[in-house]
Amino acid sequence: MRKRIEIPKGIYGITGDNFSNGKSNLDCVKEMIEGGIRILQYRDKTKTMLEKYQEAKEIAKLCKEKGVIFIINDHIDLALLVNADGVHIGQDDYPVEEVRALLGNDKIIGLSTHSPEQGFKAFQNENVDYIGVGPIFPTTTKDTKAVGLEYLDFAIQNLHLPFVAIGGIHEDNLEKILARKVEHFCMVSGIVGAKNIRETVQNLWKQW
Ligand code: 3NM
User: Fold this and answer.
1) Contact 134, 114 (CB under 8 A)
2) How many helices (H) and strands (E) does the chain have?
3) Is the predicted pLDDT of residue 1 greater than 90, yes or no?
4) CA of residue 39 to ligand 1 center, whole Å
5) Is the CB of 139 under 6 A from ligand 1?
């Protein structure tokens, strides 16, 4: 029986350079880390693999120096090449077992889930270290329909594995998430799109 690898609690940072007003992913990451982020996912849907490799390598180095857990979105090969701490995959990516076989037991695997059924299946799979629960509110960052707070409430009550609340979370609805005392939450555009990323993250910690 594999024991799940724990992920740091609090704010889970994700890159999103189409929201960062021209700031590079690396610069956004620097500011997020200054703001106190302890887990960071490299997510980029526009660059070539070579560009992603070059950028992720830099970010991996920075995360290692700062003791920040570094996760790669989608690309298992890239995660291995830059020696990331793990990968985050979606429902349409390779099966979790295959990804686990490639990565070994010591890497983190996160899985996006969008329904109680998907969440429950992930909970029963010891190869999944944590799941994403969302999108809770409508978002333009990902092309998936919002599932609402109902799935988050289901996860809180039934899914005894770490989960990250994600999707459409901004200052104006954050209270609905924090009131539920979630252990992990994520904002992409709300953080990388902020004028001052470091201060925004620091304020989020205060509110959490
Ligand atoms: N994954 P924002 S929602 C990357 O539900 C991502 O799995 C989601 O971005 C999921 O905070 C999402 O800008 C987008 O809405 C989150």
Assistant:
1) yes
2) 9, 8
3) no
4) 16
5) yes
pLDDT of 186 higher than 90: yes
Q: What is the ipTM of this complex?
A: 0.99
Over 90: is that where the pLDDT of 106 sits?
yes
Ligand 1 pocket check for 134: Cβ under 6 Å? yes
Q: How far apart are CA 128 and CA 66, in angstroms?
A: 25
Tell me the two tokens of residue 6.
Answer: 């724990």
Say yes or no to pLDDT of 58 above 90: yes
Residue with the two structure tokens 């701490």:
85
Mean pLDDT confidence for 141-157:
96
The two tokens of residue 171 are: 């200052």
The pTM (predicted TM-score) of the whole model is 0.97
Start-end of H helices in the chain = 25-34, 49-66, 76-81, 96-103, 116-123, 149-158, 174-178, 189-192, 197-207
* pLDDT score, position 18: 87
CA distances to 23, 53, 112, 165, 168 from 96, in Å: 33, 23, 11, 20, 26
Above 90 in pLDDT, residue 196? yes
**Which residue do the tokens 């109902």 mark?**
150
What distance in Å separates the CA atoms of residue 208 and residue 205, rounded to the nearest whole number?
A: 5
The answer to whether 184 and 12 have CB atoms below 8 angstroms apart is yes
Q: Annotated catalytic residue: which of 52, 100, 107, 142?
A: 142
Q: Is 41 in the pocket of ligand 1 (CB under 6 A)?
A: no
